[in-house]
């Protein structure tokens, strides 16, 4: 590295002239020995960072309310940040050094850059000295890093119990538990209650445990809190202590010194001929069951073991039919529970009218979490019933959670889940707190952000980091930290939601640990932002923040669409070490020039903006992994884009028709140059085809998702040959150059991992057998104009979930036979002008949930067989003939009576229909604010 830098500096000096040559030459000579030593120092400091990060992750959750330790650990984090800054600054200057054009454009800044290089040795020395002082400080104050505060966790679960009269909701769950516990069954049964912290698992379990009818049906019973920090021997002694009541006095002197094996034997011996009922509350680890499974003998007396847990892997110890997953309370139940606690002194627990508005907002903030409702309701029960006081409490709720000892119980319970996370998951989860409340976290987006920030490990063996990130998401879901709010029709999770109070608590921790800051209203102190933020999200009021100065910032996410381009330029110019920059929905027409100076940038999102061109200077972003320019006006990328050899995702297109009925519902983007250089590319949407490009695609062997448009028949041989080399391809979209172009893709060989295939254009001989993979879950054909009924040729695709046939068939009748498409959930039949009859036999598509019929001008009657599809819960009818609609409301109404949701668009104006469908779709995809932002910045536009 040092030699290469010196060569570049000499080239710069020659370019600047003789005077500069002499001056820079002197700097080069002075810098040379420093550069040589510096490379060794950099390797050492990188190793130091990895140790520091591992250390912080190991000890950050060990202490509770230890202020001295927290203060010391805070300084350790600062030291780690300093080391990371040195490493990232090194990467930044390295990128500048090899970017010759950058030097030419900044002729007179070269000496300054040399000065920056010369600062590194002293910076490294200073941080090494600081780390040494921290080590001495640890010894001086006697911080023991191996200690874990066990006493704080062990009894947590016992606090959250309600009297039977205060239990609200979960009546069905309690009834089901009671039935299971009383059922006559010889085998020992293991029952599980699953749910996030604070949902009332302990309260529900306690209700059945105290039920006298249940207790008297067992010979003995015990309630044991396991917790995160259980000791097996202590656990076994506690079980003995509760079960063996009569004999306990005679054996007290002995069982305190018994070994683990002997304790198990004592429990086995006692339970051998008894029907027992044991509750294991707050189980965090499956391993504890390996021991207890032997202790709790299978004696065929109908014994029962009930476990409560936040973790799905623990609840899976029980058979599926014996697992109850608790959900948050419904709005009416939340209000009832709150009133019981907050207004228990009043008659009938009635909320006074003057504070009802604020009481409703407080309850809504709890989002159905019983722990929060009960705790906050109890605190407010002795507050004055004045509107001002209740308004103040609500507005200060975030502060109260962090600082009010009376609310500390909520934070502690919710923190347990966070503290249980391994380090690689903890950082990823902290990152999610940067998003606004009620924000739908999308799987693909958060995976890219984690990867860009270096939070996802590389596992090798052909597993991509995107797949590892998805494993992280699933694990966080199984730990009840995320709720899956939307799934693709194939069942794969699409969006996740963090409970608002969990987000609040996590945000407090992230801010305390200087991990991230989210600004919801602007106006935060400049000092706080400048010196604490490592990651910053501004949700609203960005322009009220006078200055943002933070070289430490690594992620900058802007949700405020009202800021001008000049503000963005001035702000982003302060964050030169950024890895993540998200400007989605921002009202800009060009890429701010400062963006191309962010040499460390990994993730850039400028989707849903008015950007029209991508500058050639994008070629400087050599570390860029993900570029998102969806729903912009970009039609061609510069030649320099092929220099970005680390690109993993490249998305540049606009969706013109959300209903996907027009032949050109997606725009395509031209990529000049040799695309072979982008060997890490996994996603490419939507590239405009040409003869050279389709032949080069075969070099992109890591490709998972490819969308290619403007395809001609003359390209097909090369394209099919390239696709065959993409053995990892899962999603493929092919679109022809115009409606009259006919494709023959029979030569396409099997793609073993293909799960989604979309084709827009005429097909000469139908689809090749290679497409009919048993793995295929989604098939969409647009304008294929097939002459034969295509449905029968798809019928053996047992895993097909989505089927779109838009202008795909020129015939008059489609037939769906019994037992066809058993897993199909979404069917769209559109714009087949000759179609006049759809036959649906009894037993076809038994799991179909969504049916869309659009532009079927000759379909005059509602298909009779719809009445057989009982799972159908939504039907969308667009541009259907009047005769069809009259029968739907009249003589054929009995066919669709079982469908709860039928939407009808009577307009024949496809653009009007598109507008009606697009904004709700956008709101569902990105949140309610997205549709408003999109409408405001694209008012009157037609391009996207």
UniProtKB/TrEMBL annotation:
GO terms, biological process: defense response to bacterium; defense response to other organism; innate immune response-activating signaling pathway; plant-type hypersensitive response
Domain called Disease resistance R13L4/SHOC-2-like LRR: residue spans: 553-857
Pfam family, one: WHD_DRP
Keyword set includes Cytoplasm: no
Presence of the UniProt keyword Aminoacyl-tRNA synthetase in the record: no
MF annotations from Gene Ontology: ADP binding; ATP binding
The Disease resistance protein winged helix domain, residue ranges: 434-504
UniProt-listed CDD domains: RX-CC_like (cd14798)
Positions of the NB-ARC domain: 172-346
Gene3D superfamilies from the UniProt entry: 1.20.5.4130, Helical domain of apoptotic protease-activating factors, P-loop containing nucleotide triphosphate hydrolases, Ribonuclease Inhibitor, Winged helix-like DNA-binding domain superfamily/Winged helix DNA-binding domain
Keyword line: ATP-binding, Coiled coil, Leucine-rich repeat, Nucleotide-binding, Plant defense, Repeat
Stretches assigned to the Disease resistance N-terminal domain: 20-101
InterPro entries noted in UniProt: Apaf_helical, LRR_dom_sf, LRR_R13L4/SHOC2-like, NB-ARC, P-loop_NTPase, RX-like_CC, Rx_N, WH-like_DNA-bd_sf
Database matches in PANTHER family: NB-ARC DOMAIN-CONTAINING PROTEIN, PLANT BROAD-SPECTRUM MILDEW RESISTANCE PROTEIN RPW8
Family: Belongs to the disease resistance NB-LRR family.
Name of the molecule in the record: Disease resistance protein RPM1
């Amino acid at each position: 590295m040092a030699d290469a830098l010196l060569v570049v500096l000499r080239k710069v000096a020659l370019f600047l002239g003789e005077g500069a040559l002499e001056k820079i030459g002197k700097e080069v000579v002075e810098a040379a020995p420093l550069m040589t030593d510096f490379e060794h120092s950099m390797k050492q400091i990188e190793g130091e960072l990895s140790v520091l990060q591992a250390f912080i992750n190991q000890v950050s959750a060990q202490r509770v309310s230890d202020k001295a330790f927290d203060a010391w650990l805070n300084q350790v984090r600062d030291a780690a940040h300093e080391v990371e800054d040195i490493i990232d600054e090194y990467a930044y200057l390295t990128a500048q050094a090899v970017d010759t054009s950058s030097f030419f454009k900044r002729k007179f800044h070269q000496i300054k850059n040399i000065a920056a290089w010369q600062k590194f040795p002293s910076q490294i020395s200073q941080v090494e000295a600081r780390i040494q002082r921290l080590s001495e400080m640890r010894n001086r104050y006697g911080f023991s890093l191996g200690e874990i505060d066990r006493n704080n966790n062990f009894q947590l679960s016992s606090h959250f119990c309600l009297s039977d009269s205060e239990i609200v909701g979960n009546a069905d769950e309690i009834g089901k538990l009671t039935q299971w516990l009383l059922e006559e069954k010889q085998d020992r049964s293991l029952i599980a209650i699953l749910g996030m912290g604070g949902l009332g698992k302990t309260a529900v379990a306690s209700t059945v445990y105290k039920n006298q009818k249940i207790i008297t049906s067992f010979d003995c019973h015990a309630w044991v809190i396991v917790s995160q920090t259980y000791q097996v021997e202590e656990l076994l002694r506690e079980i003995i202590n509760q079960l063996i009541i009569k004999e306990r006095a005679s054996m007290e002197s002995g069982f305190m010194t018994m070994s683990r094996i002997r304790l198990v034997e004592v429990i086995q011996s006692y339970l051998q001929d008894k029907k027992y009922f044991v509750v294991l509350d707050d189980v965090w680890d499956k391993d504890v069951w390996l021991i207890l499974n032997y202790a709790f003998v299978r004696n065929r007396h109908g014994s029962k073991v009930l476990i409560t847990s936040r973790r799905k892997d623990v609840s899976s110890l029980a058979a599926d039919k014996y697992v109850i997953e608790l959900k948050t309370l419904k709005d009416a139940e939340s209000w009832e529970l709150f009133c019981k606690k907050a207004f228990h002194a009043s008659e009938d627990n009635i909320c006074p009218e003057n504070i009802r508005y604020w009481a409703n907002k407080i309850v809504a903030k709890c989002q159905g979490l019983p722990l929060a409702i009960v705790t906050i309701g109890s605190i407010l029960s002795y507050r004055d019933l004045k509107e001002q006081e209740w308004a103040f409490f609500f507005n200060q709720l975030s502060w109260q959670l962090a600082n009010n000892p009376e609310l500390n119980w909520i934070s502690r319970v919710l923190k347990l889940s966070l503290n249980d996370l391994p380090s690689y998951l903890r950082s990823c989860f902290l990152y999610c707190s940067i998003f606004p409340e009620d924000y739908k976290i999308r799987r693909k987006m958060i995976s890219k952000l984690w990867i860009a920030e270096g939070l996802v490990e590389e596992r090798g063996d052909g597993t991509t980091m995107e797949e590892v990130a998805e494993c992280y998401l699933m694990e966080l879901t199984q730990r009840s930290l995320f709720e899956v709010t939307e799934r693709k029709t194939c069942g794969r999770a699409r969006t996740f939601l963090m409970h608002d109070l969990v987000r609040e608590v996590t945000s407090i921790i992230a801010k305390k640990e200087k991990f991230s800051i989210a600004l919801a209203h602007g106006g935060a102190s400049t000092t706080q932002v400048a010196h604490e933020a490592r990651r910053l999200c501004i949700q609203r009021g960005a322009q009220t923040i006078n200055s943002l100065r933070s070289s430490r910032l690594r992620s900058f996410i802007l949700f405020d669409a009202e800021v001008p381009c000049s503000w963005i330029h001035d702000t982003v110019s302060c964050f030169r070490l950024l890895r993540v920059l998200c400007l989605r929905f921002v009202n800009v027409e060009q890429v701010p020039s400062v963006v191309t100076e962010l040499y460390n940038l990994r993730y850039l999102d400028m989707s849903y903006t008015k950007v029209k061109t991508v500058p050639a200077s994008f070629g400087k972003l050599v570390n860029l992994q993900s570029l998102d320019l969806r729903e912009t006006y970009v039609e061609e990328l510069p030649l320099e884009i092929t220099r970005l050899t680390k690109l993993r995702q490249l998305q540049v297109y606009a969706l013109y028709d959300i209903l996907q009925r027009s032949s050109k519902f997606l725009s395509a983007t031209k990529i000049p140059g040799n695309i072979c250089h982008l060997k890490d590319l996994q996603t490419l949407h939507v590239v405009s085809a040409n003869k050279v490009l389709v032949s080069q695609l075969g070099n992109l062997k890591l490709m998972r998702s490819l969308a290619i448009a403007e395809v001609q028949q003359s390209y097909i041989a090369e394209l099919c040959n390239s696709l065959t080399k993409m053995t990892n391809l899962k999603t493929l979209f092919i679109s022809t150059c115009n409606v009259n172009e006919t494709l023959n893709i029979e030569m396409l060989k099997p793609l073993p991992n293909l799960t989604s295939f979309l084709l827009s254009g005429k097909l000469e001989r139908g689809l090749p057998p290679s497409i009919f993979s048993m793995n295929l879950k989604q098939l969409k054909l647009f304008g294929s104009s097939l002459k034969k009924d295509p449905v029968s040729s798809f019928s053996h695709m047992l895993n097909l979930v989505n089927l779109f046939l838009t202008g795909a068939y020129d015939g008059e009748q489609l037939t769906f036979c019994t037992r066809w498409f058993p897993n199909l959930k979404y069917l769209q039949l559109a714009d087949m002008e000759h179609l006049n009859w759809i036959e649906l036999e009894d037993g076809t598509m038994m799991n179909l949930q969504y049916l869309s019929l659009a532009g079927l001008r000759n379909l005059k009657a509602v298909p009779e067989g719809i009445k057989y599809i009982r799972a159908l819960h939504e039907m969308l009818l667009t541009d259907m003939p009047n005769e069809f609609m009259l029968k739907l409301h009249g003589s054929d109404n009995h066919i669709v009576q079982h469908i709860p949701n039928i939407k009808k668009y009577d307009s024949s104006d496809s653009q009007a229909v598109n507008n009606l469908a697009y904004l709700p779709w956008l709101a569902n995809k990105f949140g309610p604010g997205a549709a408003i932002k999109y409408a405001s910045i694209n008012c009157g536009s037609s391009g996207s």
